């Protein structure tokens, strides 16, 4: 079975009311998403989404005629394009979906996974006051969710510390991760990022509060700063969600001494790249636990990968109702991915990723 074509379809979904993401200076009024259709010479199809595909024509030229099972070759071709152009990794994922469908297996099983569910941590997205955040976190706990991730402002962490303290005191059964949002900036955002001294001071407060990890407290490229931080605190340090290359990710483990490596499958390296990085992290006694904030399809892809080779007990699940509900997050999917009453999440039953796009339902949002 060989690749016959690569198709893309682009959609825009309106957000009403807008979503004010903690890391974005501009409230989001819509989400644009691309679905890739990888089609084989026998007419079978595989699907994926999570980022744009700016180089569809080039990738189609390179991939047509390649055997679907030649996953390493497909990955290496994507790497050559990634070096010169954009992050097109959902094309690789769509081919994996196609291969798993052809073999009538869920992707997590094809990748060697032995479980079909993983504990979720509710990854919050908004900045709200202590009372509101405590209310939402109590609702998580009441729903069986065992962990959450809290966000910070980009400035003085002392303004956010009372929110974290309120959650630790008011919902002590919840594990708490904290994202400092210092690893990168949105386009046009020149807000200064933290110094190593600032990160150390904050990490010591989180150590006092028994936080599960501190995420992206420094610019991703500051490897020496990360190493200094890691040696100065007992709290786990997580980083690398938007690294571009495998070399960058390796340096975060080997030089920066990060405890948790977070490259997103649909943004950095695809399935094959993530599997290699997860193996490296495990070899060094660290964890691989992917970033999942793209869209519902991106979450689903990372869920399959985590079931197959994550050594972290939790998976990030973007969920911060009412403004970031499962329904809003998963508008691109024909199903909604729900966290169960035992705090775990699993993919839909079926081969591949377990879903086929509902083209008729999506047509109202199509823009390309």
Structure description:
The chain has 368 residues and is an alpha/beta fold. The chain is 35% helix and 19% strand.
Q: Keywords for this structure?
A:
368 residues; alpha/beta; 9-stranded mixed beta sheet; 3-stranded antiparallel beta sheet; 12 strands; 35% helix; globular
Task: Tally the beta strands.
Answer: 12
The percent range for strand residues is 15-25%
The chain-level mean pLDDT equals 97
- Alpha-carbon distance between the two ends: 28 Å
Describe the sheet with the most strands. Answer: 9 strands, mixed
Rg for CA atoms? 20 Å
| Overall body shape | globular
Question: In a few lines, what is going on in this structure?
Answer:
This protein has 368 residues and is an alpha/beta fold.
Give the arrangement of secondary structure elements.
Blueprint: E1 3-19, E2 28-40, E3 45-49, H1 56-63, H2 71-84, H3 90-102, H4 107-110, E4 118-123, H5 130-142, E5 147-151, H6 161-170, E6 175-179, H7 196-208, E7 213-215, H8 223-232, E8 236-239, H9 246-254, E9 260-261, H10 270-283, E10 287-288, H11 296-309, E11 314-318, H12 326-329, E12 344-345, H13 359-362
Parallel strand pairs: 4-5, 4-11, 5-6, 6-7, 7-8, 8-9, 9-10
Antiparallel strand pairs: 1-2, 2-3, 4-12
Helix pairs in contact: 1-2, 2-3, 5-6, 7-8, 9-10
């Amino acid at each position: 079975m060989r690749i016959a074509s690569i198709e893309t379809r682009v959609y825009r979904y309106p957000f009403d009311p807008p979503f004010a993401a903690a890391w974005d200076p501009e409230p989001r009024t819509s989400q644009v998403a691309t679905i890739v259709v990888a089609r084989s010479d026998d007419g079978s199809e595989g699907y994926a989404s999570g980022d744009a595909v700016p180089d569809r024509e080039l990738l189609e030229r390179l991939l047509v005629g390649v055997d679907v099972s030649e996953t390493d070759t497909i990955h290496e071709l994507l790497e050559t394009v990634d070096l010169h152009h954009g992050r097109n990794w959902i094309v690789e994922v769509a081919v994996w979906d196609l291969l798993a469908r052809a073999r009538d297996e869920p992707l997590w099983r094809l990748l060697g996974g032995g479980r079909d569910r993983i504990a979720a941590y509710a990854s919050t997205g908004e900045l709200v006051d202590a009372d509101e955040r405590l209310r939402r976190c109590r609702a998580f706990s009441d729903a069986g969710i065992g962990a959450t991730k809290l966000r910070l402002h980009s400035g003085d962490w002392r303004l956010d510390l009372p929110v974290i303290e309120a959650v630790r005191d008011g919902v002590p059964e919840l594990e708490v991760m904290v994202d400092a949002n210092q690893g990168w900036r949105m386009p046009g955002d020149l807000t200064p990022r933290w110094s190593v001294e600032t990160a150390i001071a904050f990490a010591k407060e989180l150590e006092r509060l028994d936080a599960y990890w501190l995420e992206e407290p420094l610019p991703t490229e500051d490897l020496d700063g990360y190493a200094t931080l890691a040696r100065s605190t007992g709290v786990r340090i997580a980083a690398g969600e938007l690294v571009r290359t495998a070399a960058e990710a390796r340096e975060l483990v080997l030089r920066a001494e990060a405890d948790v490596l977070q490259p997103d499958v649909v943004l950095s390296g695809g399935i094959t790249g993530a599997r290699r990085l997860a193996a490296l992290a495990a070899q060094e006694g660290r964890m691989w636990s992917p970033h999942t904030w793209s869209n519902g399809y991106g979450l689903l892809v990372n869920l399959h990968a985590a079931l197959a080779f994550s050594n972290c007990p939790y998976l990030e699940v973007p969920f911060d109702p009412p403004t970031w509900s499962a329904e809003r997050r998963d508008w691109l999917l024909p199903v909604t991915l729900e966290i169960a009453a035992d705090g775990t999440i699993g993919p839909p039953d079926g081969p591949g990723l377990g879903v086929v796009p509902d083209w008729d339902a999506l047509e109202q949002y199509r823009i390309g």
